[in-house]
Amino acid sequence: MDDQSKHIRFFTGSLIEIQRLQIDLDEKEIPSMIKNNFQSGMRAGFYGGSPSQVELFIYQEDREKALPILETFKEQMGI
């Protein structure tokens, strides 16, 4: 990754789904980042999103490497 690397939204789901997918990506050394507006809002003392709309971001250049992992994940989860 370099200074020009861009994050893209890779998957949206519940926190449990996101954490499971993040483990699968970590095993293949694909870095990811979670954006959880619901949890952020709760910490700030107000409602800030939906618990089923947590977002997982990856670097754009990792997309092709990550897509087969996402497909396997979806099959396993019945999504």
Proportion in helices: 40-55%
Portion in strands: 15-25%
Domains, number: 1
The tally of strands reads 3
Helix- and strand-based class?
alpha+beta
Poorly predicted sequence stretches spanning 5 or more consecutive residues: 40-44
What's the overall geometry?
Answer: globular
Mean pLDDT equals: 85
Write the CATH homologous superfamily. Hypothetical protein rpa1041
Main beta-sheet annotation: 3 strands, antiparallel
Along the chain, the helix and strand elements come as EHEHEH
Describe the protein's architecture and organization.
With 79 residues, the chain is α+β, with helices and mostly antiparallel strands. It has a single domain (7-77), classed as Hypothetical protein rpa1041 (Alpha-Beta Plaits, 2-Layer Sandwich). 46% of the residues lie in helices and 22% in strands. It is built from 3 helices and 3 strands; from the N terminus they run βαβαβα. The protein has a 3-stranded antiparallel beta sheet with strand order 1-3-2, covered by helices on one side. The longest helix is centred in the C-terminal third of the chain and has 15 residues, at 63-77. The chain is globular, with a radius of gyration of 13 Å.
Write the layout of secondary structure elements.
Layout lengths: L6 E7 L1 H13 L4 E4 L1 H8 L9 E6 L3 H15 L2
Antiparallel strand pairs: 1-3, 2-3
Helix pairs in contact: 1-3
Which structural traits does this protein have?
79 residues, alpha+beta, Alpha-Beta Plaits, 3 helices, 22% strand
